[in-house]
Amino acid sequence: MRIVLLGAPGSGKGTQAALLADELKLPHISTGELLRSAVKAGTELGKKAKVVMDRGEFVSDDIMLELIEERLMQSDAKAGFILDGYPRNLAQARALDTLLARIEQPVDEALQIDVDVEMVIARIAKRAAEEDRSDDTEEVVRKRMKIYADQTAPVIDYYAQQGLLSRVLGEGTIEEVFQRIKGVLQVRSDS
Ligand code: AMP
After folding, report:
1. Nearest atom (ligand 1) to Cα of 31
2. Interacting residues of 134 by C-beta distance below 8 A, sequence separation 6+
3. Whose CA is nearest to atom 1 of ligand 1?
């Protein structure tokens, strides 16, 4: 099964993607994590990405496509995957479709986790303190929210138009949200 998880920064999509990957025995592919690894490893890509990430802006579509293509070509992604953090704009959504069409592995399901923006800002502030992330100051978080609304929200409609979108409420405990997600996937596989 090939699943795209969508949601605002701090919506809990990373946590839910990891749980789902574990449940479905599929790789969890997080572009944020791939980028943070590149930053840590000090690669050329990592150096370029860090400046942009620290400002709360997007890394270029070209770099992202290269990164995601390389990851999706690894053998563990053949059985399916849980994508977290990609696509983040319409150009990326179209590029992903083209790539997946080429390897005959189209997206099966797009799952949007809906949350209240103020709740998200509180959650991100907590995570920033726990993980010591330099891209999580309040100013940067507000900027990421605006970029999300302008650029990533249209991706939700993109998948809705293809009949691939389901939405779940991201409020409550991690377990409650996870149960909702499993419920939605169950309905999809029964239909
Ligand atoms: P995340 O962990 O998904 O919140 O990603 C952290 C940061 O990595 C984002 O704020 C962006 O700067 C960058 N990033 C992750 N995924 C993408 C993407 N698909 N397109 C552009 N930038 C990305």
Report:
1. 16
2. 54
3. 32
147's CB contacts (< 8 A; 6+ apart) are 56, 57, 58
pTM attached to this predicted model: 0.90
Does 61 reside within a domain?
Answer: yes
Distance 109 CA to ligand 1 centre (A): 21
Q: Residue 32 maps to which CATH number?
A: 3.40.50.300
How far apart (Å, rounded) are the C-alpha atoms in residues 152 and 167? 15
Mutate which of 16, 31, 72 to test ligand 1's pocket (most atoms within 8 Å of Cβ)?
31
Residue 191 is assigned to a structural domain of this protein: no
* pLDDT tens by residue, 71-102: 999 999 999 999 999 999 999 999 999 999 99
Q: Is residue 161 domain-resident?
A: yes
Domain count along the chain? 1
What is the tens place of the pLDDT at every residue in 16-64? 999 999 999 999 999 999 999 999 999 999 999 999 998 888 999 999 9
